[in-house]
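Retro notes
What went well: the complex prediction finally ran end to end.
Inputs used:
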Amino acid sequence: MKTHRLFVWLVLVTVLALVVAACAAPAAPQAPASGGAEEAAAPEGGESGEVLELNIYNWSTYIAPETIPRFEERYGVKVNYDIFDSNEELLAKLQGGNPGYDLIVPSDYMVEIMINLGMLEELDHENIPNIANLDPTFQNPRYDPGLKYCVPYQWGTMGIGYNIEATGGEIDSWWSFWDEKYAGRIAWLDDPRAVMGVALLLLGYDINTTDPDQINEAKELLLEQKPLVAAFAPDTGQILLDEGEVDLTMEWSGDIFQVMEENPAIRYSIPKEGSIVWTDNMCIPKGAPHKELAEKFINYILEPEVGAELSNYIRYATPNAAALPLINEEDRNNPGIYPPPEVMERLQFVVDVGEATVLYDDAWTEIKSAQ
Amino acid sequence: MHESLSRRRGHRAQFWFLFTPGAFWLGFFFLLPLLIVLVYSFFTRGPYGNVIYRWTADNYARLLNPIYFQIFWQSLWMAVTTTVISLLVGYPLAYYIARQRQPWRNVLLLLVIIPFWTNFLVRTYAIMVLFRTEGVVNAVLQGLGVIQEPLQIMYTPFAVTFGLVYGYLPFMVLPLYASIEKFDFSLIEAAQDLGANGWRSFLRVMLPLTLPGIVAGCILVFIPAIGAFVTPDLLGGAKTMMIGNLTQQQFLKARNWPFGSAVSISLMVIVSIAAWIYFRYGEEEML
């Protein structure tokens, strides 16, 4: 009898542990129906002396420490700040209905997808006069002509982060990822479109091609290189580089600059064949409880001092022409952050390819599962 | 007459009282989501990654591509390896714990359970600290002069298997312990009195009588192992694709919920068939 009870107890503990283990799995997509009903009940505010709340959903390590407190103080509101780590996670969370966010920060191609899925509110430009501060190149992007739905927040490039002590010289080409010398010392970003984009670039094709033959050629090129790969890193390539786990990594510019401060052997370069450029953009999702306040926040970010303080802290590039003179000179003159015009010409945006996404996905599955 | 009727009513009320919470829980948090996944697996991916409510069996047809067979096979292989190693490590451990005196025995059991109080992800990161090129294992081995150059341990199949065995070992040890603890060791003495040697008495007496624990442990390890996706990503460098990774990729990167659902349903069917065969076979063995 005693042992029987013990067995039941053990099974209970085991089942509990299984449940806990299952919950521990990160980045599990949310079921569409369970978008968080509680969160949706974000306080309405505005009336009866209640404090207005602004619910922001942004990338991690992507704001300066003073930005939010100053906004709260100036407008007498409270800001709730929540973070995500991929565009896809953001989309999955909002696809089942907005759980109460007022402001989100998707990248260029995701803005396009969200516009097409009818997930974004149109912005009232009357409430955002500071839009005039934006650099003209960011006033009319291909993914949202006339900025009807979004305002650029930060921009940057993707390139190679490397350890100059290990390479013994400068790295300026994506072909170094195919160099046997670095076998087992290379990390790609675990992002199908970015990695496939590099292969397409090297083959001289458009990184947004929908031609099955070109996608297939890019796949073959990457399969050839697979034995040299140490890891496909989920946006942690800079950490692997810093810890000496790899010598070359494909990463977003700011991530590399952040570890460069601690590790003098780390360098960043935009390869001569070209690379990917991106913008992250402030948008208001459909069903946002406090649209006007969100527009006030967008306008606030576009103030020269606020924008400069932000970029000086997170070390990505500002799209704000009025803020540029206030950017630290060291960053302003860094070609890795603000590339010269001849490099800019070789940078391309990743655009959503619609139905062809399945072609990229098939190729990616094959690359990832190859031995 | 009246009395029995009211008593029966009382029974019925009690039945509903006990039955409703569990049924509600299972219905809303298991059956309904499962049904949604099943239905989604027959829908179509829209051009922007949305779900279009148009019936199709294409998602399942796409799974016939040999590449997916390979992924299923790799996952199956990885899960079987993990289960076998867990059993080989777990059985002696459970045996040892069961043979200890109290309170030492409870202390050992507690030590098996304690890792569960820390998040699985945190424990995986701890393994990474051990296995890194400049990690603890390499530093110790180099310090002792065993190796000259650091070993590449991270991002190898070894690291993935180690992480899985480490993570799921308690699921094996606990049911095994419960079985072995119930086992009457005088039976071993009886077998040896009748001329069986140690190995033979283990094989013919102890093993069959602790089989329920072995079956329970194997199932509890196998099922989470075949769906694992965090460990292959973090410790394997995302270089091999398991079913769990494939499913995650479909829901996030490829934004193809219908195909992701079809992968999930197929995995569920395969595991269910395997478990069913195992149970039938196991029961016959036990009789």
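What we learned: Chain B has one domain: 61-286.
What to try next: split runs per interface for comparison.
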